[in-house]
Amino acid sequence: MSDGIIAATMPHATTTPVPPPPSIRTDWTRDEVAALIALPFPELLFRAQAVHREHFDPTEMQISTLLSIKTGGCPEDCAYCPQSALHEDGGVKASRLMAVETVMKEARAARDAGAARFCMGAAWRSPKEHDLETVCAMVEGVKSLGMETCVTLGMLDNAQAHRLRDAGLDYYNHNIDTSPEYYGEIISTRTYQDRLDTLSNVRDAGINVCCGGIVGMGEDENDRAGLIATLASMPRHPESVPINMLVRVEGTPLAAKDTDTVDPIEFVRIIAAARITMPTSRVRLAAGREDMNDEAQTLCFLAGANSIFYGEKLLTTPNPAASRDMRLLQRLGMHTSGA
After folding, report:
1. Is residue 269 annotated as part of the catalytic site, yes or no?
2. Average pLDDT per run of 10 along the chain, which is 339 residues long?
3. What HAMAP family does the record tag this protein with (predicted)?
4. What are the helix and strand counts (H, E) for the chain?
5. Second label for 97, Cα 20 to 30 Å away, from 2, 75, 121, 209?
6. CATH number where 229 lies
């Protein structure tokens, strides 16, 4: 699939999408992204910093909190995910959807700890109608606390996306995970186009898009360039772009796969490429931070990452302690913001 075809596969929305600013490119090719990633490291970071400073305060970090509101039992077979019901040794037992008041208690605690965006994730292929009604009540409740809201619920049709929009949802997360060519090595129960269709429905409803991918699943450099090129050639860039480093969870297929750990410098290169190609997006340093030292995270911040998840768990995988995050930001002279 060529880069031009990747961009064209996003279905046409039923309403006219808001165009990106004239200065923001949405036609990045895989070869262009690969050339960026291959730049000498000092030059790559200089370019990323220049773009970052043009659009953001380089000393500011957005803080978000992520809560699993329904864990395990997912019918999908994503090779990295311990929540799949098909990975019997994954160790994550299925649970029911949380009660609204339980979620509200967690949201209040997150707000009081400094988070400005509250993200809720449910392990579904797609939400059932009665569950969607409950999630909408959660969105309304979190919004009443003055926080931004984000959910990830699997695939959405157009009507479901509009229901979430009417409840006040700010962001919908739905990652494309990897390049179109490597996708079939990771997931077989839903197609790449299924993911693009959901993103189109979210855009059509007027909800901001949170969409990124995972590095370290056995993909090659060309696939990593393809991931960033796909995101950067969407008709409108995702407002949030989470870049995850694979967390090997025992019992998942990727935990047993013989793949090399991603070199931290190579990971920073992906962050920098995301920043340069999607200059106004929040680039979020997401899963995998627990395995990064402070120096590696600092390089990611220098490369343009300006959002992190705060708290000791990301759905089911470990995350650095909040105290460690605050100490690092203080050492760097950075401050937090919910912008």
Report:
1. no
2. 33 40 85 97 97 96 88 86 71 82 92 85 91 96 94 95 96 96 93 95 96 94 96 96 88 78 94 98 89 92 91 48 81 79
3. BioB (MF_01694)
4. 12, 12
5. 209
6. 3.20.20.70
Range of the domain at 156: 28-334
- What type of residue is 181? E
Name the CA dihedral angle for 24, 174, 301, 222, rounded to a multiple of 10 degrees: -70
Is 190 labeled as catalytic in the residue annotation?
A: no
What percentage of the chain's residues is helix, strand, coil (to nearest 5)? 40, 15, 45
H-helix or E-strand spanning residue 39: none
Q: Domain for residue 23, yes or no? A: no
pTM here?
Answer: 0.85
Query: Given 78, 136, 211, 300, which residue is catalytic?
Result: 78
| Catalytic pick among 30, 81, 136, 195 | 81
Q: What's 208's DSSP letter?
A: E
Q: Find all residues with CB under 8 Å of 184, minimum gap 6, and list them.
A: none
211 annotated active-site = no
179 occurs within a structural domain? yes
Asked if 81 is an active-site residue, the reply is yes
300 assigned to active site? no
Alpha-carbon distance of 202 to 181, in angstroms, equals 24
Total structural domains in the chain?
1
Q: State the catalytic residue, choosing from 30, 111, 117, 119.
A: 119
